[in-house]
Write a structure and sequence with these properties.
There is one protein chain. By secondary structure, this protein is an alpha/beta fold. It folds into three domains: 97 residues, Helicase, Ruva Protein, domain 3 (Orthogonal Bundle); 156 residues, Rossmann fold; 73 residues, Arc Repressor Mutant, subunit A, CATH 1.10.10.10. It is built from 15 helices and eight strands. Strands 2-3-4-1-5 form a five-stranded parallel beta sheet, with helices on both faces. The chain binds adenosine-5'-diphosphate and magnesium ion. Adenosine-5'-diphosphate binds next to helix 3 and helix 11. Magnesium ion (MG) binds next to helix 3.
Length: 359
């Protein structure tokens, strides 16, 4: 074969390992979660009484996005699951399941209970309770600030006998807004997840690199600028995203190595997310953002009305474009839902962190 073709990667060859890029998925749970042992121990201490059939304590985990809160908890729950059948661990993402009814449905589903149709929340909870009270239970409620009502929390506090509740959120202040009857029953231990240092960020990304890529495909300087970016942004997710994009860029160019050039192409991709500071927004965008903050969860049409009522002059098309821009920059989340009373709707929610949390 002539050297020209020898140099060009065959299309069947990949820089990624066999199972492609799964380890770069944000939801991948590695075997080890380095640098979070202290935090995991603190959570485990709350759960420990369950192992001797006593009731557990509760904890409140907080820290900015991308610092390993979710992965540390899921990893711990997995260990419990592997350790014993006497403790039932439930992980609930409250962004997805944001009402008591939705959580109850999710738990029924996780417990393999199929006959949920036409049943009321109370009825389903009664079933859950009957079946769970034979065991000890860990409830991890992630993104708990997204809950629209806290009845579920109250119900498990009151009615599940042996339990430990783990609340996880990016917002430390959220706990102060929780109504007193719940707070006084929870009395959670506060566990802070601080951002990783530069070295720690590098260590975590290196571990993921070894899972996700063929050996020796990364040039050091390419990895280093990506790790630095992730460390500067204090967000591991950014690092994972950049590693994947750099790998794809290298494959695109049929390169056998991931070089600085490919890493830079990846960095270019997140330029779109670069409005980090609210102050950089134009007045119109700022107005829309404030409206979304105060009315999170309404439909786009409602927002347009509010926007006009507040003195906004843009026509609907331009308004939509602004919404698109704010979404792209992760100031707001836009959710399209099919069906409902009036066909398709677009729901807009606020997000206060301006990071690449979940693309
Ligand atoms: N200590 C760690 N070890 C391995 N992976 C980590 C670690 N911390 C974070 N990650 C990875 O970084 C990403 C973001 O972490 P995550 O737990 O989702 O953050 P948070 O819940 O705090 O927003 C996930 O893909 C996660 O697997
Ligand atoms: Mg999380």
């Amino acid at each position: 074969m002539c050297s020209l073709f020898k140099d060009i990667l065959g299309s069947s060859e990949s820089l990624f390992r066999e199972k492609s890029d799964v380890p770069l998925d944000f939801s991948f749970i590695p075997k080890l979660v380095p640098y979070r042992e202290k935090e995991q121990r603190a959570v485990a201490a709350c759960i420990k009484p369950l192992f001797s059939e006593k009731t557990g304590r509760h904890c409140f985990i907080y820290g900015q996005p991308g610092v390993g809160k979710t992965v540390a908890c899921r990893h711990l729950l997995r260990e419990i699951q592997e350790e014993t059948d006497d403790i039932a661990p439930f992980y609930i993402n409250c962004w997805k399941h944001n009402t008591t009814y939705k959580i109850v449905i999710e738990i029924c589903d996780l417990m393999g209970f199929k006959f949920v149709q036409n049943k009321k929340t109370e009825e389903l909870f009664r079933w859950i309770k009957q079946n769970l009270n034979k065991k000890s239970v860990v409830f991890a409620l992630d993104e708990s600030d997204k809950l629209e009502d806290l009845d579920f929390l109250y119900m498990i506090l009151e009615e599940i006998e042996r339990k430990a509740i783990v609340l996880i959120t990016n917002y430390k202040d959220w706990i102060n807004e929780v109504e007193e009857r719940i707070k006084s029953r929870l009395m959670p231990e506060m566990i802070e997840f601080k951002p990783y240092s530069h070295e720690e960020t590098k260590g975590i990304l290196k571990q993921r690199m070894e899972f996700a890529f063929q050996p020796n495909v990364w040039e050091n300087n390419a990895f280093d600028i990506i790790a630095k970016k992730a460390a500067d942004m204090e967000d591991i997710r950014t690092g994972l995203y950049l590693m994947k994009q750099a790998g794809l860029a290298a494959e695109d160019k049929s390169s056998r190595k991931i070089t600085l050039e490919h890493a830079k192409l990846a960095l270019d991709k997140i330029k779109d997310f670069s409005i980090k500071n609210k102050d950089e927004l134009a007045a119109d965008e700022q107005l829309i953002l404030d409206l979304v903050k105060n009315n999170s969860g309404k439909r786009i049409g409602d927002f347009f009305r509010l926007y006009q009522e507040s003195g906004g002059n843009l026509v609907y098309k331009s308004f939509q474009r602004k919404i698109g821009k704010l979404e792209k920059n992760r100031f707001i989340a836009v959710e399209k839902t099919a069906g409902g009373d009036d066909g398709n709707t677009t729901i807009i929610r606020s997000i206060s962190e301006k990071k690449l949390t979940d693309f």
